[in-house]
C-alpha cells in the first residue's frame, strides 16, 4: 500500500427529518446565502423544510444554478456574496448546486484577476466562505468531498478544482428528498457512483485488501439496489437510503487511500458533456467499457479480481473472463436504462477528433500514465 494522509471533516446528518436540525449546525447570526437549481426543491417541499429550519436566520437566495454549473452563472452569485457580506453558503440540490457553491465559496476571496484561473490554472485557494449542504440527488459524493467541476459555457470547457477549505462543514442526507427524482436522475446517480468506485479500484494491485473489499462492497450494493429502485413503483426508503450512502461513500476519499486512482474516464466524459451536453453519468457509461478494453492487458490483474469477486466469473481463459467482466459492466449500465454508445447520442468522428486534439494539447488524460492522450481517439472510436 502507498503512503497517505486521510482527512475528512464533513459531519453527515443522515436520515428522515434531518433537515429540521439545520439550525444546530450553522453559527447563530450567520448571514446565509441559500443556493439552488432550477426549482425542483420548490416542488418537492425541500425548500419549505429548509426555510422553516432557518427561520431565525437572515437568509438570501440564489437560484438558477444549472446542471453542469456554469462559471458565468456562479460569478453572479459571487457578486452577491461579496456585496451582501454573506458568511455562510447553503447549497440545496444535487452535485451541480453543491459544486457550483464550492466554486462560489472559493471565488469570493480570490484575489487574482480572473476567477476562472481557479480551474484553468489551478490557482491556489487560500480562503473560502464556510458552507454546509442539503443533498437531494445521490450521485457525485460532492456532499462529502472537497472538489467540484465547473463549466465555462463560452469556451465549452469543463474543469475540476478542489481544496480542503471546500469540504462542507456538514451535509444533510435525507433519502426522502430523492423521492421526487425522475428515474433518469436516479439511474444517473447509480452509474456515476459505480464509475467513481471503478476509477479508484480498477487500476493496479498495491496489496490493499481493505480498500478493495470496501470498493467491491459498494459495487455489489449498487448492482443489488439499482434494479430495486427501477422496479418499485413507489420509492422505498431503505432502497433510497442505501443508494444515497453508497454514492457518498464512493467518493469521500476513503477507498482511494493508498491505492492508484485513475480518473481518465471522467476526464474524457467531461469533454463529451462540454461539447454535447450529455449527462455526466451517461458519458461515463459510454467511455468506461472502451477504456477497460484498451487497458485489458495492463490492468489485467485487477480486472480478473473484479470479474471473480463482483460478477462471479470463474471459468474461461484470462482473456475471456476479462472480456466478460467488461461486457457485464456495460450490460449493467444498459439495464438501468442508459444508452452506452456514442452513436446513441449523435456523436461522430468529427467530435472524436476535436476531443482527442484537446487531450493531445493538454498532454495527459487521467492520473496514471497508462492512458495516454494519443489513446483517447481509439477509446472513443471503439464506442461509436
Ligand atoms: O436544478 P433542479 O431543479 O434542482 O433539478 C435538478 C437537475 O435538473 C434535478 N434534481 C436534483 N435533485 C432533485 C431533482 N429533481 C427532482 N427531485 C430532486 N430531489 O436533477 C437534475 C440534475 O442535477 P445535477 O445536480 O446536475 O446532478 P448530479 O448530482 O448528477 O451532479 C452532476 C454534476 O456533478 C459533477 C458532474 O460533473 C456534474 O457537473 N460531479 C461532481 C463531483 C464531485 N464534486 O466530486 C464528482 C462527479 O464525478 C461529477 O463530476
Ligand atoms: Zn462522476
UniProtKB/TrEMBL annotation:
Oxidoreductase among keywords: yes
Any Pfam family matching the protein: ADH_Fe_C
Record GO terms (molecular function): alcohol dehydrogenase (NADP+) activity; butanol dehydrogenase (NAD+) activity; metal ion binding; methylglyoxal reductase (NADPH) (acetol producing) activity
Residue stretches making up the Alcohol dehydrogenase iron-type/glycerol dehydrogenase GldA domain: 9-175
Cited PROSITE patterns: ADH_IRON_2
GO CC annotations, alphabetized: cytosol
Location of the Fe-containing alcohol dehydrogenase-like C-terminal domain: 189-382
Presence of the UniProt keyword Oxidoreductase in the record: yes
Gene3D superfamilies in the record: 3.40.50.1970, Dehydroquinate synthase-like - alpha domain
Keywords: Oxidoreductase
PANTHER family: ALCOHOL DEHYDROGENASE YQHD
Protein family (similarity comment): Belongs to the iron-containing alcohol dehydrogenase family.
Name assigned to this protein: NADH-dependent alcohol dehydrogenase
Organism: Marinifilum breve
